[in-house]
Amino acid sequence: MTFLEIYSRVKNLSQVNNVDRAKNAVNIIYRHFVNRFFWPQFVLTATITPVSGTQGYALADDYRWIKWVYYRSSGSGTPIPIRSSRGVFPDEQSLGTPFIYRIKKDSGVVAVSVQRNWKIFFYSIPNQVFIDTFTEIEYEYYYQPLDLSADTDIPRFDTGDHDALIMGAVVLLTGKQGDVPGFTMFKTLFEEHYAAMEDKAINFMGRPIVGPGPEIVEDGGHIISDYGLGFGGVHEAIDL
Fold it and tell me: Which of 29, 70, 200, 224 has the most Cβ atoms closer than 10 angstroms to its Cβ?
């Protein structure tokens, strides 16, 4: 559904005629969904061009969370994973083939009003021998989508999940209006829709969610122990 179709239904169900309030409620729920869970619909791939002797590189502007980092075999094209440092990162600045990475905010001096960018740092620092063989380092990441704005905008969630956005926005608006019967009814519908969304995502990504895929055969991989939830349990209702 388009943003127009979604907020129009929210208006009708909540009996709120103010378009801006309906739009705002939809975007509040949209952001809440996005930040609550590592959804498979929000994974993108980006590339880094390594430079000999350079350790840190900027990540994509819409970066939210890393999924995995790798370069490809020059022969078979098979991804070769670079592992997370898991909090341990050598102080020495040796050059060679990167085998671990860490991600942190840019430590440069910026104005208080400016958001610091996320950067990825490699160890060993790429050297010319590595770059001559591997011209790119790739990474998959979860991105932060923009709010819905134009009437033709479409949420990045699957079409079948748009009803959860609608019900969540209606719950928000009926709650603000003090409509207890409406709030109770739509809250039940919302919880059912949202639980189905999470179940589908978990079944798609596996139990528990594992990333990156190729690492699961080496040292257990990177396990997200809470099934990708930002907080709470799988079926815990969103507190509006």
Answer: 29
13 and 69 housed in the same domain: no
236 domain-assigned: no
> Where in the sequence is the domain holding 46, given as residue range(s)?
42-143
For residue 124, cis peptide bond before it (omega within 30 degrees of 0): yes
Identify the three-state secondary structure at position 100: strand
In a domain, 10, yes or no: yes
Consecutive H or E run containing 165: helix 162-177
Cβ neighbour number for residue 174 with a 10 Å cutoff: 24
Does residue 69 lie within any of the structural domains? yes
Residues 46 and 35 in one domain: no
123-177 residue pLDDT tens? 999 999 999 999 999 999 999 999 999 999 999 998 989 999 999 999 999 998 8
Number of domain units in the chain: 2
Judgement on whether residues 49 and 33 belong to the same structural domain of the protein: no
Place of tokens 């809470």: 226
Give the DSSP per-residue string, 170-225.
Answer: HHHHHHHHT-HHHHHHHHHHHHHHHHHHHHHHHHHHTTTTBSSGGGGGSTT--B-T
Q: d(Cα 128, Cα 140) in Å, to the nearest integer?
A: 24
DSSP letter at 53?
Answer: T
- Global pTM reads 0.75
